[in-house]
Amino acid sequence: MDALIIPVTMEVPCDSRGQRMWWAFLASSMVTFFGGLFIILLWRTLKYLWTVCCHCGVKNKEAQKINGGGDTQADGACKPTDEKEENVAAEVGWMTSVKDWAGVMISAQTLTGRVLVVLVFALSIGALVIYFIDSSNPIESCQNFYKDFTLQIDMAFNVFFLLYFGLRFIAANDKLWFWLEVNSVVDFFTVPPVFVSVYLNRSWLGLRFLRALRLIQFSEILQFLNILKTSNSIKLVNLCSIFISTWLTAAGFIHLVENSGDPWENFQNNQPLTYWECVYLLMVTMSTVGYGDVYAKTTLGRLFMVFFILGGLAMFASYVPEIIELIGNRKKYGGSYSAVSGRKHIVVCGHITLESVSNFLKDFLHKDRDDVNVEIVFLHNISPNLELEALFKRHFTQVEFYQGSVLNPHDLARVKIESADACLILANKYCADPDAEDASNIMRVISIKNYHPKIRIITQMLQYHNKAHLLNIPSWNWKEGDDAICLAELKLGFIAQSCLAPGLSTMLANLFSMRSFIKIEEDTWQKYYLEGVANEMYTEYLSSAFVGLSFPAVCELVFAKLKLLMIAIEYKSEKRESSILINPGNHVKIQEGTLGFFIASDAKEVKRAFFYCKACHDDITDPKRIKKCGCKRLFPVEDEQPSTLSPKKKQRNGGMRNSPNSSPKLMRHDPLLIPGNEQIDNMDANVKKYDSTGMFHWCPAKDIEKVILTRSEAAMTVLSGHVVVCIFGDVKSALIGLRNLVMPLRASNFHYHELKHIVFVGSLEYLRREWETLHNFPKVSILPGTPLSRADLRAVNINLCDMCVILSANQNNIDDASLQDKECILASLNIKSMQFDDSIGVLQANSQGFTPPGMDRSSPDNSPVHGLLRQPSITTGANIPIITELVNDSNVQFLDQDDDDDPDTELYLTQPFACGTAFAVSVLDSLMSATYFNDNILTLIRTLVTGGATPELEALIAEENALRGGYSTPQTLANRDRCRVAQLALYDGPFADLGDGGCYGDLFCKALKTYNMLCFGIYRLRDAHLSTPSQCTKRYVITNPPYEFELVPTDLIFCLMQFDHNAGQSRASLSHSSHSSYSSSKKSSSVHSIPSTANRPNRTKTRDSREKQNATRMNRMGQEKKWFTDEPDNAYPRNIQIKPMSTHMANQINQYKSTSSLIPPIREVEDEC
């Protein structure tokens, strides 16, 4: 049978017989492959024979040397001369250099090598595409090289492949294995046929499909380009590339043999199949489906299918499921964040749960913040559950979630941490091991700072002592906005302030939390409480109209006219150092561009302080009409944002009076109230009474055995006006950090006699572990026992305490959330159910000539301004002031059995929280977003609740883990001159006329003008609004009442009180003496043991000495009175007369005192400072 005639073009002269030339193309490849293989094998054989001959010649030469014929040269042809050795060495060196050069050229470790490898792969894919195009033509055709564009491109590609093949051959160490590599075989069967095509003016599709095998290197190329980085992605690309390359290569072979036919059948049994039909045939064959619509007819095709189905089926059955599994296991949240132009974003990581995220978003995206143009990116290594995922979807316009870890730099790059405005790290407040949780967050900070040192980080810390580790990070800089919100420090600080001003913890927690206004029409206590809850803390620059005025004057004007409450300013010293001053005195004048701290219900209201113009707004009575006027302003307009402060302006020391670098003249208040250096001169400069910073009272370290009281000793002790701390813990419990509770109660802006004695009731084993941080504080005692024992509680006179604090160190060791607070709840209910006969304690004290403080009506400590009149008797535990720490917010329902709070009610709406008798650490979550929007808020809060902790003090504690005593210098004593929070009673004293139906605004102005006291809230009896009398003594908090708010006589007023310089002089000899003689003054006797024969030193006191002390006390009373009033001495009699009160009002008078006079127990007298 005649050969098959292939179609020819008229331009190209072909063989007139139509003879096929496929064998010429195939022969070129076969000759190249086998010829090269033969040459390599021949070279290796000759090299082996040469090596054997040389080895033989060396042995003969050594034998001749042994036989004495060392001077005779052997006749062996393999004996090299010195000249030949030099030539061989030179030749070897040249070949090595060329080989090294070729290796560098193709190595992916160099830029040139990577470019060359990528280029070869790209050209291989290009050659494969040309094959796909040519596959639509006949297998063999006559084409003119000079007119066929695809043939010219293919020729250029193959010339490049030939050069690259030469480089690979030179760089190969083993030429034989190189010759048998897959890439080499591909070059053998694709490159030579192209040159034959040019020579014969013919084109044979042939084995060009082998270029598809280059796809196997696809994963390597992507790794060179740093695109593939994870093992799963590399494995997925490997599987896909091997599967696809095998599939396409096998389809090319079927396409060749089916379109050509069998050679022994003279190519008569061919069938026309396109390449893509062959691809389809191979797929149905591998999957064992085999529809039968397309099948192989040639013997070669069928034989190939027999073997291919064995390997193809195995590959299909193993590769495809693994590919699907890898694709299915890809992280749903594994993408990358795409930054939006003109919109900032923050990264939130750490403890990401439904509770923590919902609380954070509720406060961060609150409507009172106006338009929050910030996108929140959450990064966590665990995918969210369905509830959390639904929460993200509800906030999809402002929230995105990505799965990953901040410890992985790749994940940090995914969330664009380098362009983020800040990174917030949430802590797990309920973890069993707080130190481990803090260590995890510190590692997150280290990882983030290592990736981008200038990123601003706000992190939550659980334990105060772990904050010191952040100082070890070189790029940690609080001046640039980095903040650590220590939950233990703030939680215990809030509770400590509640010991001084009950209810303050609730007020401060509501101020930095964003709450929506809830309007109630009924005249109930919730109405007034919720009106105050709607207030938040904001900052705004003051108008130039206030420049030159004193702080009290501006504060009064802002409150009366603008209906705003300003409590602090950011003051710039002469050195341009910014500091926060809380209620400074008349000496501080408002400067241009002063930043004010305001309490208001909306950020828009605070704008009035910036827009106020005396010329335009002086006669306006409605503050809502105060808008921006057209008057020329000296203050720059670009600083109008109320909540956005530059982190670089941040000053964390809480005010200039707290800063050691501040100007001394700003440390003091009105000079008329300060008796020069008399206070300093009266003190012994060689005695250490305060810590080295001057911020806290200090005493030499005491052994714990000296402060331990047995139950019998405590029962014989007259304790009154003290603080009882009931603590649950054992030797295995995590440390709470009681130092943070004691430090605010030992702040140096209290005089020594004003310090409340602190009595810890709890496990001695636990308190021993805490004692190392407490042994430098005066007036601290320990009663080993349990807070559930009524005998222990009665021994410490809990009915006479100013505050009972209930804490637990075992709360996080219980899995059931509802049982985490069981100990605290049981202790609280136990105390409230106790009954007392107060006459016993009073009789015991009077029999020895002592009167507990608060019961001596003539004591100046009980003056209406200096302190509150203490209730003479408490007969039921329900009237004892208690604050209970809770972990689970829902457990607050168990504290008060007489309230009607729903279990699902939010914590801030419950009665115990509103009354200040319960505090949960969850309220501190709002500080994260508050600190981000205004980094000075945290500084202000810490200054108010910690008693004056500064970065310098934190660095000192990080070094020594204890306070260091310091000598009294003018600089350290000046640090005492700072405000403190107190409560002012209205039932008597200079404000008594306003207490019965007066306006809160009038009280505000009078207290500010007369005493420099800044009022900011009311602590009112719960049932004060009722017309009928009520025996309930519970109070609730009213934050920032309006000017016209009506007062009642039983109200207690929250105020920022200035430091009283004169009060300390009358007690200098008592509180700062060496205590060589024991004073029995009734005024200062809050802790005094009933003497016995064995333990009462100086028991014989003459009547003359007592009368002398009483006379001295009466003189000091007159001196102390002068600080509180500007009126003449005869305006108030020395023995303050208390106006008659009804029995009902006496029962309603609060039991708390803002200050108390204390003397340590006898065993502590010699050791006190």
From TrEMBL:
Keyword list, A-Z: Calcium, Cell membrane, Ion channel, Ion transport, Magnesium, Membrane, Metal-binding, Potassium, Potassium channel, Potassium transport, Transmembrane, Transmembrane helix, Transport, Voltage-gated channel
MF-aspect GO terms: large conductance calcium-activated potassium channel activity; metal ion binding
Comp. bias intervals (Low complexity): 1067-1092
InterPro entries to which the protein is assigned, alphabetical: Ion_trans_dom, K_chnl_BK_asu, K_chnl_Slo-like, NAD(P)-bd_dom_sf, RCK_N, Slowpoke-like_C
GO cellular component, one term: monoatomic ion channel complex
Region of interest called Disordered, as start-end residue ranges on this chain: 640-668, 1067-1134
Membrane-spanning residues: 20-43, 115-133, 153-171, 236-257, 273-291, 303-321
Subcellular location: Cell membrane
UniProt entry tagged with the keyword Membrane: yes
This protein's name: Calcium-activated potassium channel subunit alpha-1
Organism from which the protein derives: Columba livia
